[in-house]
Amino acid sequence: MTEFIGCDMHKKYSVFVSMNEAGQAQPAVRVEHADRQAFRQYLGTLTKGSAVAVETTGTMRGRLSC
Predict the structure, then answer these.
(1) Which domains, ranges and CATH numbers included, belong to the chain?
(2) What pLDDT digit, counting tens, does each position of 12-34 carry?
């Protein structure tokens, strides 16, 4: 099943929401950037190969690497 993921990236954390093909959204998940293990763990729960749409300002571009 296809999964659509949105990410609202902030300076110290990101908020993710995933939605299935039927338009049913999962609860928002906040992940702190300082906890890289939690960040990787959350990303590991997403359907492999899913695209993530990232909403960010120009100041955050390229600052986060897992």
Answers:
(1) 3-55 (3.30.420.300)
(2) 899 999 998 899 999 999 999 89
